[in-house]
Each structure stands twice: as structure tokens, then as C-alpha cells.
Amino acid sequence: MKHSHIPEMKIVDWLLGVLPEQEKEDVSNHLKQCRECQRLLEAWKSIGLKAEAQYEAPPLSHQERIWAQAEAQKQTKRMRRGLRIAGGLISAALAVSLFALRLSVSDGGRDASHDRPSEAYRYQIIEQNHDIPIEQIIHNPETKQIPIEPSALFQQMDGTIWLNDDTKEMLMEIEGLPPFATRDYQLWIIYTNNEVKGELLTIRHGAARVLITGEDVKQFKQIKASLEPKGGSAAPTGPETFIVDLDHE
Question: Are 173 and 209 in contact (CB under 8 A)?
């Protein structure tokens, strides 16, 4: 251990007190002499992870670890933004100039993402299992099957999307989602014109099954999900669980 750094997750486990005694002692000895790992340890402490924290159930420990790592990533991003203040000021000045220029352009040049009121979205979400013709959708020869690749923080997750432009249906099944008492999983639908629509996911026993039907299905470009504050967010703010690019060809 003297010649290499400790994996970040092992430092978290050491901080949470869940390592076996021998590994705990090895990590403690390494931390006494490695400034790089000491800095990493302090970074985790700074976001509220404490050595005296107790996690009796293994899933809860995993959940807290996910959220703590996401918060650490946010903190890193904020620090990087602080280093770009000067560049940001220049960009702001340029943005003011561009905004003034846009005011002189006719309405025909407006961004299409603001042209459609929310009530004009043409799709329906069905989450009740008995209302979903699963076999009919899956076995339709025109249906495309797209595997869902989880993000690094949710490697235990597995899922599939079935997409059919002819029937205007998109079926999504996900499992392996740990529950959070104060967080909701939110689905984000990204259109080909970059509009974004958010929908809360109903999770039962760590799984979700959703059928989306309607004309808009043919305009979906990407589907992703994130962990958001209870009740959902207006835009993605939490750690992403997955991102799937949809192939309509």
C-alpha cells in the first residue's frame, strides 16, 4: 500500500467503519503517511460523511455512498467553476451583445423548444402492469430492443427499452433501483429539438415498468433518469442513473 493509493470506495468504507479489522488497520496506516489519500478522506468528511455513522442494512450503506459521491462530484464542479470566473465574465458580456442582436431578429428565428405549450405534448404514460400488453410489444417484429446501460454509481441496475415507431409505443423495464426515503427517481424525455420533459418514476420493490404511447414517441431522441429531491425537479440536478440514445432508423 505504500506504493499505491487506496481506492476511493475503500476510503469511504473505512470512514463508515465497515471494513474487516485487518483492512481497517492497513488503511489507517496508509492514511498516516499518504497526503493524497488524506485529502480524499477530508473531501468526504467535508460533505458530511462521518466515521461514527452507522449503517445496519447493507443497501442503506450503498445508497448513502451513491449520494455522497454525487455530492462530491458537485463540489468538484463548483470549484472548477470558480477557477473560470474571468472567462465567465467575458462570456457574459458576449451574451449581452448576442441578446441585443437577437432582439432585432424577427420572431421566425425563435427556438422551437419554446413554441409548444406543455399541454400540447402528445403521449400517455401507463405504469400499471396489467394495462401493459408486454408480450405484444416485445414480440412485434418492428419493435427495437435497446439495453439500458447504468451509470457508474448504479452498476447494480439493469433494464431494457423496447421502441416501436409504427405503433408509437415505448416500453421500459428497470430493476435494481435502491429506494431513498427523501429522493425520487425522475425520468427525462429529450426530444429531437432538445425539449426536455420530466416524469416521476413509480418504483416498486426496486423495479419500474413504464409504457409511453402517442405521437411524440417518434420524436424522442434520448431517455435518461436521475435521482432528484422528493417530488421531482424542473430540470435534472441529481446523479444520473442511466442515459439511452434512441434509434428510430
Answer: yes
